[in-house]
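Predict the structure of Iron complex transport system substrate-binding protein.
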Amino acid sequence: MKKTTILSIFVLIFSGLLAQTPQRIVSLAPSLTKSLYYLEAADLVIGHTTYCHIAKDDDKEIVASAVSVNVEKVVTLRPDLVLATTITNPETIEIIKRAGIRTEIFPTASSFDEICEQFAQLGEMIGKSDVAEKVISESRQIVEETRQAFKGHESLKFFFQIGARPLFSVLDNTFMDDYITYSGGRNIASGLNTGTLSREFVLVNNPDVIIIATMGIVGEEEMQIWEKYPTLSAVKSGRVFFVESDMACTPNPPDFAKTMQIIRQKLIE
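Done. Here is the predicted structure for Iron complex transport system substrate-binding protein.
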């Protein structure tokens, strides 16, 4: 009788925990959708945006574009958790919350450490803390090995281009600036309040490295434009190269680590 009572209590507690763990998730940000997949939680995702490329081959509902959310569709899917970033319209978030749906907002991470913190937070939120810890540990190891590889090498000036019309640069106090500092480099846009630059500014600062986040045909055009300046240090030394924007611009531990590996391969291997 006593054993039966204990077993019943255990079942009740386990059922309660399971009920609290989200089983139907809608993601309103490509970065969060990617994180869910890295957390081995693809089966929990029931809706995502048109830009969530990692989920494009799965049979899941499209509930948002790059600029707008189909709130009616979100509500109809009956999610028990909606994930969004601060980019999502606050009014949209309020409407979803008023429908009684749990909604969690993630601000844009400002560093690699913050990326790891948010990833761990998401893992805990969906019952995947063990997976999150493993992914973070592996990513941190890769990043640290890469940082060590750059020690003893010349400190280079970087221009990390993430926009073309107008030119747009990675700024201080962003997770993407960590790509530069972890590579032992200096950002030519350091100290600026806006990422919008003129081409003259870049030429005057004469970066040793130009990294271009892929932008389709526009990115190819940018590469060709920079190569027209043979005296530019980055061009002269063959240090103008692409990184995949879907990887480098997406704040999650594995993608950050992969981007660091590519930078290492291009510059010191």
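The chain has two domains: 23-134, 150-268.
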